[in-house]
Design goal:
The structure is a homodimer of 244-residue chains. Chain A is of the alpha+beta class. Chain A is 30% helix and 28% strand. The longest helix of chain A has 15 residues, at 143-157. Chain A is elongated, with a radius of gyration of 21 Å. The first copy, chain A, binds a DNA duplex (27 and 27 nucleotides) through helix 6.
Chain lengths: 244, 244
DNA sequence: CCAAAAGTGTTGTGCCTACACCCATGG
DNA sequence: CCATGGGTGTAGGCACAACACTTTTGG
């Protein structure tokens, strides 16, 4: 039982705090590649309960570390990955989440660049693997619920904030960006309208390079995301209007 | 020190969990009245630290109670209020939040009807008080930060979800709704455009009643929020377009 | 009859949607 | 020369913004 670190009172009589709740963090890391589509990074559990099930990377928060630090540490330890984008998603505190004890988990939402994606996919680490969001395995604990919430957030967010760029390489083809949106939204979008709207935001700049045409067809120009411009626009408050 | 409820391992060697983190919930409760504008419910702390400072209602989560239950229990105990609307806001987990120990707090965002607002304001309970969001006192812990985040959420949410109704009486004048928006947004809006847009959503119905004109001027018709219609629309997915 | 608040319509502009053909390369 | 994917412009509809006068009541 936990020590009484201090006393509290709602009534007039003070009483000890003897809370038996453990705190963890979990990360839903999204990655993207042309071939595998939008994917989530999962690890295979090596201990009970749910031994050998797939689960979100995460773990217990240390006493003197912030929640963000805990997420990044666990991601590093369990998957070796470093994320581009990290934000808090939701805190899951249901009583029966963990069969062993009361565990409350602060879930985070993370995005990694395509290069990180392929990097991990190349190694044959059996411990961490990418799963397409349409073909998820059965998950440990309530991690399925957490992922669903994260996917919902991703789908919503991509229509009003330019986070698509966090999932692509630094340089990308416009068709890549379009494909990412199509896969996330689940319906086709008009190529010309999409490009016009995206360019009108002023966040995407066309480079002078042309991709070496690997496949058939006309080689595409390369584009990059103008992060500096994005920060300028964010402070002056920018309307994304209706992005899709 | 907390018992080791179970073992964990990231590395191959299992080790005990000896986490010393306490978990609390805090509630940012918004209320509204014509006279006092948009306000937050605060309580005066009776114990150290921050004795006699104003703080958010909240407290420690019990071992076998969900986070939502904890919030509602604490609100009932500390303020006697019952909320119309409750959603999770954010989890604050900075290391130095509480001078005594590591305390992580899950903050909630709540709205109460105008009637509850006036009810509490009428009693002379010195423990809980409404404060206009423009005139907040110095707050205990990081509660100022929490309130700022909640205000941000409220301002954003009111433009894309019909939560304004949760703050008004069951029957209200259109001018009340308009005033609420004006006070929250901080700028004037066109009365005619506002009414047209709001009515076009089909969520507000005009009643056959007219308010007894207490002040000078033409008496207004009463309106009410059609909650049934709202639920219908929510499932079929409704565009709010640009509400303001 | 005057002050105060409620109620109501129209017009212009600009964004969004829908839509189809040519271009550059590899094989 | 053909298959494949990249690149581009325009016309119509509709939602949004801008705008001011009339009506009803109390004093």
């Amino acid at each position: 039982m936990k020590n009484a670190y201090f006393y509290t009172c709602n009534s007039s009589m003070a009483h000890k705090i003897t809370q038996q709740i453990l705190l963890t963090v979990d990360a839903v890391v999204f990655g993207y590649s042309q071939g595998q589509g939008v994917s989530v990074l999962l690890i295979k559990r090596k201990i009970k309960p749910f031994k050998d099930s797939w689960a979100l990377p995460g773990g217990f928060v240390h006493d003197k570390e912030s929640l963000e630090d805990a997420v990044m540490r666990e991601l590093q330890e369990e998957t070796g990955i470093s994320v581009q984008y990290l934000e808090q998603l939701y805190t899951f505190g249901g009583v029966g989440r963990d069969p062993r004890s009361r565990v409350v988990s602060v879930a985070y939402f993370a995005l990694v660049k395509s290069s990180e994606f392929t990097l991990l996919a190349a190694t044959d680490a059996a411990e961490a693997e990418w799963f397409n969001i349409e073909e998820l395995p059965v998950l440990a604990f309530d991690h399925g619920v957490i992922i669903n919430k994260a996917i919902e957030r991703l789908r919503a967010k991509i229509t009003y904030e330019p986070i698509g760029f966090e999932l692509l390489d630094r340089k990308f083809l416009f068709s890549d960006l379009e494909q990412l949106y199509v896969k996330l939204l689940g319906y086709d979008i008009d190529r010309r309208n999409f490009k016009r709207k995206m360019m009108s935001l002023g966040l995407v700049q066309q480079l002078d390079e042309v991709v070496a045409s690997s496949t058939a067809g006309r080689p595409g120009k390369l584009y990059s995301f103008d992060k500096k411009k994005y920060k300028e626009l964010k402070v002056s408050g920018f309307d994304l209007l209706k992005l899709i």
